[in-house]
Amino acid sequence: MNPNADTRNVIFEKTQYILEWDYSGWVQINPHYFDFQKDWNETLTTKINKVHARLRLLNNSSTIYVPIHLKKIIDGMLFYDEETSMLSDKCVEYTSSCLNEIKYKGATIKILNYI
């Protein structure tokens, strides 16, 4: 394993790939700037792209499954088109799940600290 790899938020359980993304993570970076949430939400796109890069050969699905209560996060993303429900080249499908988890290509991105 590469000691320089960013693995602190990645857990491998059998064949499942799980990442964590902290909705309030920006507070640790700049706790005095209150209008940073929208910019911080773009880092979730980075997580999704990491999943895509890592798992693109294992699963050719391009649908991201997002619980409807997390729609506010996705709506504000720079490359999200609400009319087509596309985030860049990925289709976003909203689900009725109550969990704070986004599913993509068999991976799970756990959304921490989202109220």
Describe the structure.
It is a single chain. The chain contains three helices and eight strands, in the order ββααβαβββββ. It has 115 residues and is α+β, with helices and mostly antiparallel strands. It has one domain. It has an eight-stranded mixed beta sheet with strand order 1-2-8-7-3-6-5-4. The N and C termini lie far apart (35 Å).
CA(first)-CA(last) distance: 35 Å
Count of β-strands: 8
User: In percent, how much strand structure appears in the residues?
Assistant: 25-35%
Provide the residue-averaged pLDDT: 81
Overall tally of domains: 1
Give me the number of helical elements. 3
Order of helices and strands: EEHHEHEEEEE
Task: Specify the helix fraction band.
Answer: 10-25%
Keywords, please?
single chain; alpha+beta; 3 helices; globular
Task: Give me the secondary-structure topology.
Blueprint: E1 10-13, E2 16-22, H1 26-29, H2 37-55, E3 63-67, H3 71-75, E4 80-81, E5 86-87, E6 90-95, E7 101-104, E8 107-112
Parallel strand pairs: 2-8, 3-6
Antiparallel strand pairs: 1-2, 3-7, 4-5, 5-6, 7-8
What is this structure, in a nutshell?
The chain has 115 residues and is α+β, with helices and mostly antiparallel strands.
